[in-house]
Each structure stands twice: as C-alpha cells, then as structure tokens.
Write a sequence for this structure.
C-alpha cells in the first residue's frame, strides 16, 4: 500500500509531469514570468470553466478576499458578516482593512454560515456578507442572496475550498460557486482542490465595472502605466503557476469525482456507528466537492482519536480547533458565547480524514479500520 498522506501531491504530479515540464520549459525559455501567455490562457480557461465573465488572477486566496473588499469600496467601520467556524483569512482581511468583522454561528449539519444568524447580526452599518463554502460544500446561497437583496448587502463568496461545486437555485438555474455572489475569491494553495506549486489565487465577478476596478487594484492601482488612480496592492499570479493550473484545471472535475468517491466509501464504512456523524451532502451530489472529509465525533474522545491515528501512521487534521471569535487577534467583549453554541461544540468534535484524488480502496479501508478500532 502507498503511504497514506493527508494530500498526495507527488502521485498527482507523476500523472501530469510531462505536460507540466513542457509548459514550464516554455515559460523559462521565453522568460515571460509575469503576465505571460500562460496566465492569460489560464484566466480565460477558468472564466469558461466557472461560467463567470471575469477572472482576475492574483497572488493568493487571502489577497483575493482583500482586493474584492477594496474593489467594492468598503470603508473603515463598515460591518462585514462572516462565519465563526472557518479559516482565519476571511476575518483577517476584514480587520486589516479597518472594517468590522461580525462573526456569526454556523449550521451543525452543513458546517456553513447560518442564514438566520446572519439576519440577526445585520445593523445599519452592515455592508457585506462573506459566506465560505466550507470543506467544499456550497453554503445556503439561496437564503444568503435573498438576505443580500432585502438588505442591500454585497455577497463575497470565499470559494477557496469549493472550486468546482455547483449550486442549483430554486428556479433550477445552475451556477458554479464563485460566480453566484457579487464577487468571489479562491485560492490555489497546493492542497486546495485546484492547487498550484506555490501560492496563487483569483477573484471572480460578472460585473464589468467591478472587474476593471479589481484589475487596477491588483496592479498598484494602475489603469494606465505609472498613473496610480487608487491605492492598490501588488498581487500577481506568475506564469509558472499558471502552467500548472492550466494542466490541473483540465482534470479538476475528475479530481473532484475522485474526492466524492472517497467520501462515499468513507461514509459507507463509518456511518451507523453511535459515536460518528458522517458529513451530509445537503443538496445534490454536485454541491459538495469534499475539500475535506470531516466527521463529528460525539460522546467520545476526539483528541484521543487524533493520537491513535497518528500513532498508526495515519495523518488527520482538526479544522478548526478554535472558533475565530475566541482567537486572541479577533476576540471582543461584545461577543456573547450563547451566540456561538454550534461552533463551540464543533471545535471539540471535528476531525478530518485524509482526502485527495489519489486515495484508493485499500487506504480508505485501513483508515476506517483504525477509526473503528479506536471507538471499539
Ligand atoms: C486557503 C483558504 C484561504 C486563503 O488562501 P491562501 O491562498 O492560503 O491565501 C481563504 N479562505 C479559506 C476558506 C481557505 O481555505
């Protein structure tokens, strides 16, 4: 059996190596490292894949969120609502821009932001909502878009974990995540579903004017060379990363199918045990791309299981061990613990098993046997 890894980027690379090497060689010999043809073609390939009018490549997924908020013209003091149970990047850029993060609880089944908690948190200062498609599952976008229309709020989709997932709305229209809100962001960090071999990110929008603004912001606020119209940043995707992404984009649906297959096998082997809640796909099979396969362990010892797996050579992760509202950088006297009951519970129960496109049946059986051995 191949060594079990949380993500297996070596096996994945072996499959695309000739194409990646040839593409990289082209970049190296042309020396067009920045904004070369590979970046342009990746941009249009990704626009076609997501079905969105504009993709603006940038340096990473955190920048993508920051630039999106800058482009929307959010100003210091504006309130931005996001989930308490997610990676810190979302709340980090809100705070960095001098905006006020308003953290709200999540749904215990989907792990995604709870629309009723969003509604309760809205004030006259609220300007935007940032839903995160956590672990690859589409957030409740119908409810979130309805709230945004009712209260005139921007929706910025953090699609770092959800790329390739689709959402079918109440009218039967199907849209890929990242293209549903006013603006979307994603990350190409190596372990993401579409990952490069370094850092990378992108912003999505269907709004022509906003796209123009965003393109200037990622390039030092320049719309004309050496004319700096707004305060911008330097945030670029480089050509070598675009080569990797162009190859992997062709395989993204296949990668996501492999992840779904692994998730189904895990759930077949693990569901039915009293101490395990397997992840639930809320809508349909295309609305979850399993960036992570995350169990809830109830009435048992989550940290003991982590240790047991690790001592059996099986990696696992706890995403996320601390609610954002309780992080030193983001805590505030104004938060009422009673409003974070779900997140406070989840951080004690969740455990993510290895998840990637190269998992095989034997590895999954080994992992599940080790989980069930521990629980007895
Ligand atoms: C990975 C991730 C980010 C940040 O992406 P980077 O490319 O690492 O900056 C933001 N939000 C979520 C939900 C993520 O998982």
């Amino acid at each position: 059996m191949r060594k079990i890894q949380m993500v297996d980027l070596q096996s994945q690379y072996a499959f695309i190596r000739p194409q990646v090497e040839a593409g990289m060689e082209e970049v190296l010999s042309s020396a067009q490292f920045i904004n070369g043809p590979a970046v342009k073609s990746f941009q249009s390939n990704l626009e076609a894949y997501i079905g969105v009018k504009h993709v603006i490549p940038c340096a990473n997924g955190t920048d993508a969120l920051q630039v999106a908020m800058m482009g929307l013209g959010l100003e210091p003091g504006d309130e931005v609502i996001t989930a308490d149970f997610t990676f810190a990047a979302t709340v980090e850029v809100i705070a960095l821009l001098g905006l006020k993060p308003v953290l709200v609880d999540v749904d215990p089944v989907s792990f995604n932001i709870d629309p009723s908690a969003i509604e309760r948190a809205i004030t006259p200062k609220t300007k935007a909502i940032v839903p995160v498609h956590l672990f690859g599952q589409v957030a409740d976008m119908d409810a979130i878009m309805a709230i945004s229309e009712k209260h005139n709020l921007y929706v910025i989709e953090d699609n770092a974990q959800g790329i390739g997932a689709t959402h079918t709305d109440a009218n039967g229209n199907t849209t890929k995540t990242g293209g549903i809100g006013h603006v979307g962001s994603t990350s190409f960090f190596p372990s993401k579903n579409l990952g490069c071999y370094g850092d990378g990110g992108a912003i999505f929008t269907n709004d022509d004017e906003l796209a123009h603004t965003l393109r200037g912001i990622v390039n030092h606020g320049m719309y004309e060379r050496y004319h700096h119209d707004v305060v911008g940043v330097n945030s670029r995707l480089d050509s070598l990363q675009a080569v990797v992404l162009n190859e992997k984009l062709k395989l993204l649906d296949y990668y996501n199918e492999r992840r779904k297959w692994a998730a189904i096998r895990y759930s077949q082997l693990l569901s039915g045990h009293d101490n395990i809640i397997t992840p639930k796909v809320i809508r349909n099979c295309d609305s979850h791309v399993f960036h992570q396969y995350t169990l809830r362990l109830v009435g048992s010892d989550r940290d003991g299981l982590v240790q047991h797996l690790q001592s059996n050579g099986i990696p696992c992760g706890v995403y996320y061990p601390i609610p954002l509202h309780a992080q030193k950088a983001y805590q505030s006297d104004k938060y009422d613990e009673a409003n974070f009951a779900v997140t406070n519970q989840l951080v004690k129960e969740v455990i993510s098993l290895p998840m990637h496109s190269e998992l095989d049946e034997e590895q999954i059986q080994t992992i599940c046997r080790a989980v069930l051995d521990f629980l007895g």
Notes: The first strand starts at residue 54 and ends at 58. DSSP finds eleven helices and 14 strands in the chain.
